[in-house]
Amino acid sequence: MIAQHSGPCSFLRENMRNTVSPMSEQDPVTGFAVAVVREEGKWRCTAMESSALTELDEAITELRKIRSTGAVFGLLDVDDQFFLVLRPGPGGVQLLLSDAAAALDYDIAADALDLLRVEPPADDDDDEVWPEGALDILADIGLPAPELQVIVGEVDLYPDEQLQMIAQRCGFADEFGALLDTIDSVTQ
């Protein structure tokens, strides 16, 4: 599903990665945001600004600024609770939210559902995990929708492990892992 947008390895969970401005004073948001580019058959992963973890518009704008003739997309692990895959294109933004129930607690997830024009789940549905958005978002680069559905459905895995599986399946696991190792070493 393409939404129209008008506005601009084992990882160390014990160490807070990219702590960003809190949604509330008590709850800082941790995680990582990675821009992935494939150009001329080569993968490149770069860290995005930490504000991408709390502001959907910021993440989309940052990805749109990347100039490439190949694929450009973002992988966001928000608070080790859920992940987002964002892929801006000429016709709008494709996105996948790994757990729609995250919209009950995280503004960026609620904004993703707004962009998809999907109602947030009821408070009593927050125990169920289900994705919303384009499961075929990475089909053209080697990850068909049914396989992405299986990865998203692995509820025993943390989001960074799910994103590592996505990177492995698409062919950029080495670049992704090296960047996350750099992010981990900087925040230690």
Provide keyphrases for this structure.
two-stranded antiparallel sheet, 188 residues, 9 strands, 5 helices, 7-stranded antiparallel sheet, 26% strand, single chain, alpha+beta
Please give the structural blueprint.
Elements: E1 2-3, E2 20-24, E3 27-29, E4 31-39, E5 42-47, H1 56-64, E6 71-78, E7 82-89, E8 92-97, H2 107-116, E9 132-133, H3 145-152, H4 159-170, H5 173-187
Antiparallel strand pairs: 1-8, 2-3, 4-5, 4-6, 6-7, 7-8, 8-9
Helix pairs in contact: 4-5
Alpha carbon gyration radius? 15 Å
β-strand percent reads 25-35%
The end-to-end distance, rounded to whole angstroms, is 38 Å
What structural class is derived from the secondary structure elements? alpha+beta
Overall description:
It is a single chain. By secondary structure, the protein is an alpha+beta fold. It contains five helices and nine strands. It has one domain. Strands 1, 4, 5, 6, 7, 8 and 9 form a seven-stranded antiparallel beta sheet that branches. The chain has a two-stranded antiparallel sheet with strand order 2-3. It is globular and about 45 Å long. It starts with a strand and ends with a helix.
